[in-house]
């Protein structure tokens, strides 16, 4: 079954029986036997060359789409000349009158003929309809939908259908003049010319021009006839029929060239566009403007929700100095499911000289469309912009669905990514503090060993660098990408032997499941490493910025090892979420992470409590980290989270032990701090051991945790004041 079709598109030929000059040469003198070129002779040569080319390439034509203006300023003969040339040159390539689609242009209707009259279409119908071509339904000439011969061209397998539309019924329409001007209008040239016949004729022509509008419009009656015709058109046995509309006038200006003219655009343009949308017209072919373009028109419904995309192909014609796009071959491939258009622009050749046509234009017609539940894709190169958009998408369009985020971000001097400006930190931080907070958090997630693995056995670094206790997946990726652009440079963070149970009950493992690193050539000897990471579930307001910072950290490590540049980052979340009230807790609490990363900070914190003073620098940072730990814990205990966020235990115990050991004078205030720390650690430990944690478990734990946090806040404030 043929899944492609090729059409010859012609428009604005402007031919005449007497010949229309085509002066692309400079004839300063007249020499006997040297005839000036005409549009008719140029077209003859172009058709002959095109026919040869198609035969040599083993190609055929499925139809001719003529979008009007066969005549030049109403001069007779253009219709018959064009039809004869088409049948003469392209009959061996499959063209008959039955697969030629023709519509009238504004040059094809007599200026003196009223709209919707037989006189207006006399020459057009005498040629095209009489020969059996496909023509549009004509106002005033046709009554029923079946009048006037065929109004559609359909492929044998019904994969495509072409529908001509007449936009020229009101071209050169005489306006209705108001009284008393209407009564004297015809006599004005005579009165003004004062007996000068030539002057009177010019005045009459000019006044007639002032009283006429070259108006484009499609009648409601024609649109209704077309609606019924399209909806009753036989459909293919499988897939969607590709529908093409042919009309003379444009929908939108196809170029930047300005035209100052009354009724420059169709008067009921929005009605025409809505018709094209509702009838699923995929391609519109037109002329009139003598400008070539291939642009998509996005037509929305009245509410503004539904978007229909139509490819509008505007056809140019040949004129002196502009002969490189005289006609077009339009080939549609991939029907019915993935149609794409190739437009070959045909130039007017010179006798004996090979024509050099412009490169073809390719347009994909199909689009993914809006399928309910389809993945939502957000992409960009500005972190703040993308972050705000993904949070909005995760909360609405992509909520609990698949959300794909593609980032192409500039690389910082040290490979770090900043936090988005709107990231909800528990308390204000300056930029340096924000970066340090993020860097330390990312570095903890990438530790190859953690003292807290008994509570969180899926720390990303240990899975990446000690998978199964022995495989360093990062080193393996470096070796692969250094050698070649392998698709096997991936790492897994799920271990079925450790993470899965036979019935799925009681399982706990990371949302970060899989990551792939791809080597991409930038040109020359330069390469980039792109990353694609998959998450079974992802919280976007708080977790996603940490995730991409962690991915960039890995990307930078790999690129540094092999001398490549960090490239794009793509995250795929199978279950997108954003919880506006969820605490900003994206890993182990700060004071517990210090056991892995900076145990000396717990000692500095204990020293500050014992002495009651806070020195600038590391000790001040330790106290501020303690305050953030309390804020995190308070937020965790303020709202139940089914995912079971980690809570501070070991860090609280160690701080209490340090305070007991350092408090030689047994100060009551410090003893009180120790007592509350141990009480909170015990409560947290009991709650932590419950798997899975229910809402009732949370309700038992949260009040005591909040009470202890409140006491510790007061004691901290009393001891240090404002840090």
Q: Helices, strands, pairings?
A:
Blueprint: E1 5-10, H1 39-56, E2 63-66, H2 78-90, E3 100-102, H3 122-131, E4 153-154, E5 160-164, E6 173-174, H4 181-184, H5 188-193, H6 197-210, E7 212-213, H7 220-231, E8 242-246, H8 269-278, E9 281-286, E10 293-300, E11 307-314, E12 327-333, E13 340-346, E14 361-364, E15 376-380, H9 383-395, E16 403-407, H10 431-445, H11 460-465, H12 473-483, E17 490-492, H13 496-499, E18 512-523, E19 526-535, E20 538-539, H14 543-562, E21 565-573, E22 576-577, H15 590-597, H16 599-611, H17 618-636, H18 650-662, H19 668-689, H20 695-720
Parallel strand pairs: 1-2, 2-3, 5-8, 8-9, 9-11, 15-16, 19-21, 20-22
Antiparallel strand pairs: 1-12, 4-5, 6-7, 10-11, 12-13, 13-14, 16-21, 17-18, 18-19
Share of residues in strands: 15-25%
Tally of individual domains: 4
CATH class of the largest domain: Alpha Beta
CATH architecture tag of the largest domain: 4-Layer Sandwich
Question: What is the helix tally?
Answer: 20
As for the CATH topology of the largest domain, it is Purple Acid Phosphatase, chain A, domain 2
What global shape is seen?
A: elongated
Instruction: Give the N-terminus to C-terminus distance in angstroms.
Output: 78 Å
Mean pLDDT, rounded to whole units? Answer: 91
Side by side, the strands of the main sheet go 3-2-1-12-13-14
Query: How many strand segments?
Result: 22
Summarize the structure.
This protein is of the alpha/beta class. It has 20 helices and 22 strands. Strand 2, helix 2 and strand 3 form a beta-alpha-beta unit.
């Amino acid at each position: 079954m043929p899944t492609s079709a090729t059409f010859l598109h012609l428009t604005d030929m402007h031919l005449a029986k007497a010949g229309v000059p085509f002066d692309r040469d400079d004839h300063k003198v007249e020499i006997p036997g040297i005839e000036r070129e005409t549009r008719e002779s140029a077209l003859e040569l172009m058709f002959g060359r095109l026919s040869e080319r198609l035969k040599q390439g083993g190609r055929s034509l499925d139809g001719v789409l003529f979008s009007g203006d066969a005549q030049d300023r109403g001069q007779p003969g253009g219709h018959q000349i064009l039809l004869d040339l088409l049948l003469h040159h392209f009959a061996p390539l499959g063209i008959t009158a039955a697969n030629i689609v023709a519509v009238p242009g504004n040059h094809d209707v007599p200026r003196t003929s009223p709209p919707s009259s037989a006189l207006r279409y006399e020459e057009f119908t005498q040629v095209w309809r009489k020969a059996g071509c496909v023509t549009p339904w004509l106002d005033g000439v046709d009554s029923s939908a079946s009048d006037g011969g065929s109004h559609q061209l359909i492929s044998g397998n019904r994969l495509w259908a072409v529908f001509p539309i007449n936009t020229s019924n009101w071209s050169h329409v005489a306006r209705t003049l108001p009284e008393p001007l209407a009564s004297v209008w015809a006599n004005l040239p005579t009165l003004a010319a004062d007996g000068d016949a030539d002057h009177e004729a010019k005045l009459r022509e000019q006044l007639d021009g002032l009283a006429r509008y070259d108006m484009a419009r499609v009648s409601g009656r024609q649109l209704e006839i077309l609606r019924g015709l399209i909806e009753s058109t036989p459909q293919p046995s499988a897939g969607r029929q590709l529908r093409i509309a042919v009309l003379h006038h444009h929908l939108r200006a196809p170029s930047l060239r300005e035209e100052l003219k009354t009724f420059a655009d169709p008067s009921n343009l929005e009605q025409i566009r809505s018709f094209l949308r509702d009838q699923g017209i995929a391609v519109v072919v037109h002329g009139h403007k003598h400008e070539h373009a291939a642009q998509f028109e996005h037509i929305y419904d009245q509410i503004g929700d539904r978007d229909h995309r139509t490819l509008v192909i505007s056809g140019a014609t040949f004129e002196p100095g502009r002969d490189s796009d005289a006609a077009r071959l339009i080939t549609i491939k991939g029907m019915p499911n993935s149609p794409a258009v190739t437009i070959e622009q045909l130039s007017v050749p010179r006798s004996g000289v090979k024509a050099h046509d412009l490169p073809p234009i390719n347009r994909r017609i199909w689009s993914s469309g809006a399928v309910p539940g389809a993945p939502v894709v957000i992409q960009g190169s500005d972190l703040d912009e993308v972050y705000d958009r993904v949070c909005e998408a995760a909360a609405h369009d992509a909520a609990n669905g698949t959300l794909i985020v593609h980032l192409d971000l500039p690389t910082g001097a040290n490979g770090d990514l900043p936090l988005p400006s709107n990231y909800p930190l528990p308390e204000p931080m300056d930029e340096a503090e924000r970066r340090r907070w993020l860097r330390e958090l990312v570095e903890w997630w990438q530790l190859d060993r953690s003292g807290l693995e008994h509570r969180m056995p899926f720390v990303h670094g240990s899975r990446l660098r000690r998978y199964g206790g022995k495989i360093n997946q990062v080193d393996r990726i470096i070796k692969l990408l250094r050698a070649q652009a392998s698709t096997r440079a991936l790492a897994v963070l799920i271990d079925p032997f450790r993470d899965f149970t036979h019935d799925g009950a009681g399982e706990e493992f990371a949302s970060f499941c899989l990551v792939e690193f791809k080597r991409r050539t930038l040109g020359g000897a330069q390469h980039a490493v792109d990353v694609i990471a998959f998450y079974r579930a992802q919280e976007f307001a708080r977790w996603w910025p940490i995730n991409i910072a962690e991915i960039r950290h890995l990307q930078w490590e790999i690129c540094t090892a092999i001398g490549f540049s960090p490239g794009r980052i793509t995250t795929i979340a199978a279950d997108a979420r954003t919880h506006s009230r969820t605490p900003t807790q994206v890993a182990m609490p700060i004071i517990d992470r210090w056991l892995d990363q900076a145990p000396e900070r717990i000692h500095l914190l204990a020293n500050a409590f014992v002495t009651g003073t806070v020195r600038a620098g590391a000790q001040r940072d330790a106290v501020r980290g303690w305050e953030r730990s309390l804020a995190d814990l308070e937020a965790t205990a303020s709202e139940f989270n089914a995912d079971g966020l980690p809570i501070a235990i070991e860090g609280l115990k160690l701080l209490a032990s340090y305070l007991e050991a350092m408090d030689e004078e047994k100060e009551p205030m410090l003893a009180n701090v120790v007592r509350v720390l141990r009480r909170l650690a015990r409560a947290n430990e009991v709650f932590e051991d419950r798997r899975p944690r229910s809402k009732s478990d949370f309700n038992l734990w949260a009040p005591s945790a909040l009470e202890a946090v409140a006491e510790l806040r007061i004691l901290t404030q009393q001891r240090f004041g404002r840090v």
